Records
---
Amino acid sequence: MLNIILPKLPELETERLILREQRISDAPVLYDLRTNEQVMRYIDRPTPKNVEESQQVIQSINDNFNKGANLIWAITLKSNPELMIGNLGFWRTDLPNHRAEIGYMLQPDYWRKGILSEALSKVIDFGFNDVKLHSICANINPANEASRSLLLKHGFVKEAYFREDYYFEGKFLDSEIYGLLKA
């Protein structure tokens, strides 16, 4: 079985970005992301009621990292590494099968600038070469064309379409699963 044992979440750097650990001080930005209708349009998760709930989410993310269950980075620009503009990482891990589920969100002001693509490339590389994952998957809302395009651009292939497999806010929703193999 794969084990993710890292003393701390490593900081990753790209041409324009620094991917770093999420901090409790990022909670107001996370709250803004999770309450932004544009950002959450295709992310079917409960809306936080206040910044304190976002602090609890960050604490949970950090606790789960310490248990080897996830690796989630704050996306920041090199020009301002203190300001989180989004996040991405491996939200769920299936360690016996060397597989992890990737997810991401980004402030709308930074959409269509290649930021998620740049960050995703780095995190995929880290997942395969440092963590030693065999496969990475993504679960998206089928209406999310931007996310689908991003995944396809990075070599993901559609693995499944599940009809009404997810219950959220009184409705059954569909899911599309994309996967990428290390090979």
---
Amino acid sequence: MKNLFLTLVFAATATTAFSQDLTTPQTSADVGSTPIKQGNWLIGGSIGSLGYSFEGEKFNININPQAGYFISDGIAVGLGVGAGLQTVKEGKNIWNYKVAPFVRYYFPEGASSTGRFFGQGDIGISGTGATAEQNSQTSFAFGINAGYAHFVSRNVALEGMVGYNYSKSDLANAQAQNGLGLAVGFQIYLGHK
């Protein structure tokens, strides 16, 4: 009798628990083109990016915050900064930085109500910190990237970006560095009204 009673209590509890409405987290938001209207701001950046240099067998990881302003619908201009670490095969690790204005264009083709493809170009300076064996270097740098912004709420988008990056030191005998990069991050879109 005791076993039957416990079985009925368990069955009633399980039925009640499973019949409750379970809420799932929001994974998409139907925003249309509202976040990318003229006068809006975007703030965010990549919270981690990875890259590999073709020339020197170097691996890097960076943090790149940025802020921009929409000068027209779908076109934002702004400034990105970055800090990172570069590991050198059989050498000392190098800390680096970057300051680069950017232009970002959101393509109307392939757009959905929850996401958009975009292209981004930047041009600026990058540099490395001085170590005991090396001098501090400042470089001309530019990048061309393509990505996708997926809106998880009205004002927040998760982004993935891939692209090509190039830098050339201002030293007379320096060689150019170029490579491919992958970045994952987020942007917060702020309306002007």
---
Amino acid sequence: MTVPKLVLASSSPRRRELLAQIGVVPDRIQSPDIDETPHAGELPRIYAARMAAEKAAAVPREAGECVLAGDTTVALGRRIMPPARDNDTVRACLKLMSGRRHRVFSGVALIAADGTLRRKLSESIVKFKRLSSAEIDAYVDSGEGLGKAAGYAIQGRAAALIPFMSGSYTGVVGLPLLETRTLLLTAGFHV
């Protein structure tokens, strides 16, 4: 059986780095262009799974290619936290999450060479310590939270602000490797 070619439907350098940890290098990378607006009343876990599947479906596949996509969604209760496009959003997210636990849903979707869509979802719990204004300001000033789900990167400076985490660390970073490996194995990859 020939090993299919892998297309990563993501522009995230973290997802490429995580795949490299398990010895996977995409043959092609293409960022999907989709509307990522949550539906009214959509639950965070459903949203993360839907986004991963829609990102995978948005990237054209050639013969013998599989498309892999992921989505990381941070939720405070039923509230989907926004991606941090600016410092004000980073600050607002950190204030909301200060001293509280939140959930991180990391959806991964793979469209196999035969067109079959398979999906997995990891769920993790992360707790921030109670953050002082100075800690929030320092994190915002670092610029690290820009472009990240809920304005933080657990693999960076934010790690020093998190006393508790349960679940998939790689899922919180951006791609749950256990679930991703399982999907790749079902599609014929040797991982």
---
Amino acid sequence: MAWIILVAAGLFEIGWAIGLKYTDGFTRLTPSILTAGSMVISVVLLGLALRDLPVGSAYAVWTGIGTVGTALLGMYLFAEPATVVRLVCIGLIVAGIGGLKFLA
């Protein structure tokens, strides 16, 4: 169950990172509220997952999910470059997340 909570925390991590772009420097009220809410939910879920998971692995997976998801959504939503090198690096992050989940 802790891993499911951690994945949910990572998804909210993606939500607030992408949300930052829509806040326009926190000058837009609704995106700012949603982004702040996602931040709180993400950290609370991480804290719950840490009850049962080692902090080093959980934090790395949490940030990894956020990093990969944000990078991919940045390419999709904001036309950020999807170069081969960038995609390979994202793949390495995914491999690291998998290694922490299944081997650590």
